[in-house]
Design a protein that fits this description.
about 35% helix, binds ligand MV4, five-stranded parallel sheet, globular, 15 helices, about 450 residues
């Protein structure tokens, strides 16, 4: 087992990884920008190294500075967290070339899933269900027309290098196809330097359901059930649940079997998440994330497994040591992402936190790196806390989340806590019938009411 790990991240996820390391008796190295010198992840680490100025490009994305920090401190492994360099295959390769373990999948698998077309053709060949669409890249407008006519409108043009909704265009009918095709290609070229696009049938009211997996280096692959991440606004998730209110145990088991068999065949290792759209009781694979995700705690709460500890054990070459039938799910978990933003306009609200009192009690977990007297810097993501609750069932988890949100005291900055309170009171949320479009309308509706008043 490693004796020292460098954590190439900041904020709550840096603390989250430190916690797993500490429980395993592993020393931690923090890296930080000059803006984060007073940050909690620096204070709580055994050692820290300043890797550059505030801009992420020059610090948390500074690959050689981070690798130098690992070499200087004698860290044997690097955990990338999420975001930043977590899905950068070149970085993973650099890390390994320096004799340091990258706590994540192989560079080959990161690269394979980073290209959405390769990810889809790989999954198709392995028997994972997909949305009807082009088998691969669509290079010409004529080819796009042919495929769209075959799968029927509306269709969606997506960038191969995309993900998270960037470079996506809907064509409602043949008249709209040319514009959608050209725009998607131009956007993809500008945003990713890669104009490859593909086509899918547009699903109008899906849920976003993702499956958590772990694979060791010995051919064992298991899944930890699904998360429902349908509550999003502009591709930013606000609230996640495990399990999904609409997925049965039988459907979960069936999908889990298909997915674990597929990943076993390609020799995938470490943590991963497969994203699906779920509509009319059908799962359709869209993308795979080759990292630990922000919302992993809801899976931990229902499975009672420390996913970061498992990532570290796997990376050190240990076997999982349990099989699928040993993984059981208990109760229901909900996570609210609390950001330093105006809850109505979503304008960023960095600044000095004058008071910080997180909620506690049975079944309540707060993952956060902020404290009273901390100044939220304007340079990074606005996530300041993840509030996670567990209950014996969904109604109990909802009641607990409402209670925890009411207890949460943060002063000095605006946060999205009031928005979460409203969501948790809404009949559509309580019924669990929402799709990926619900939150956008919910937020706009509130604005509409105000404008009309
Ligand atoms: C789709 C879709 C409908 N039909 N694909 C958006 C981000 C990217 N991960 C995939 N996305 C979508 N792909 C087909 N064939 C609708 C979306 C989508 C979406 C997906 C998940 C969560 C929120 C979303 C919001 C808008 C659109």
């Amino acid at each position: 087992m490693f004796t020292k790990i460098l954590i190439a991240n900041r904020g709550e996820i840096a603390l989250r990884v430190q916690r797993a390391c500490r429980e395993m008796g592993i020393a931690t190295v923090a890296v930080h920008s000059t803006a984060d010198a007073d940050a909690m992840h620096v204070r709580l680490a055994d050692e820290s190294v300043c890797i550059g100025p505030p801009s992420a490009r020059e610090s948390y994305l500074n690959r050689s500075a981070i690798i130098s920090a690992a070499l200087i401190t004698g860290a044997q492994a690097i955990h990338p967290g999420y975001g930043f360099l977590s899905e950068n295959a070149d970085f993973a390769e650099m890390v390994e070339a320096h004799g340091i373990a990258f706590i994540g999948p192989s560079p080959t698998h990161i690269r394979m899933m980073g290209d959405k077309i390769t990810a889809k053709t790989t999954m198709l060949a392995l028997g994972v269900p997909l949305v009807p669409g082009s088998p691969g890249e669509v290079e010409t407008l004529e080819a796009a027309r042919e495929i769209a006519a075959h799968i029927k409108y509306p269709v969606l043009i997506k960038a191969a290098a995309g993900g998270g909704g960037r470079g996506m265009k809907v064509a409602q009918d043949e008249a709209g196809l040319e514009d959608a095709f050209r725009l998607a290609r131009a956007e993809a070229q500008a945003a990713f330097g890669n104009n490859a696009v593909y086509i899918e049938k547009y699903l109008d009211k899906p849920r976003h359901i993702e499956l958590q997996v772990l694979a060791d280096n010995h051919g064992h692959v298991v899944h930890f059930g699904e998360r429902d991440c349908s509550l999003q606004r502009r591709h930013q998730k606000l609230l996640e649940e495990a399990g999904s209110p609409v997925i049965t145990a039988a459907a979960r088991d069936a999908l889990g079997k298909i997915v674990t068999d597929a990943l076993q065949k390609i020799g995938y290792r470490n943590a991963g998440t497969l994203e699906f759209l779920y509509q009319d009781e059908q799962f359709s694979f869209i993308e795979m994330n080759t990292r630990l995700q922000v919302e992993h705690p809801v899976t931990e709460m229902v499975s009672d497994v420390d996913l970061v500890r498992e990532q570290i054990r796997i990376s050190a070459g240990e076997e999982l040591g349990y099989s699928q039938s040993d993984i059981t799910f208990r109760g229901h978990a909900i996570e609210c992402r609390i950001t330093a933003e105006d809850p109505e306009t979503f304008a960023p609200s960095p600044g000095l936190v004058s008071l910080f009192h997180p909620p506690g009690g049975l079944g309540v977990r707060t993952d956060s790196a902020i404290y009273a007297g901390y100044r939220v810097p304007p340079h990074y993501d606005s996530l300041i806390a993840k509030l996670i609750v567990h209950g014996r069932n969904r109604p109990e988890a909802i009641a607990r989340m409402r209670r925890a949100l009411d207890e949460f005291a943060i002063s000095g900055i605006k946060t999205t806590i009031p928005l979460h309170r409203r969501i948790l009171e809404d009949p559509a949320f309580i019924a669990g019938t929402y799709t990926i479009h619900w939150l956008e309308r919910f937020v706009a509706g509130e604005d509409g009411l105000k404008d009309g008043a």
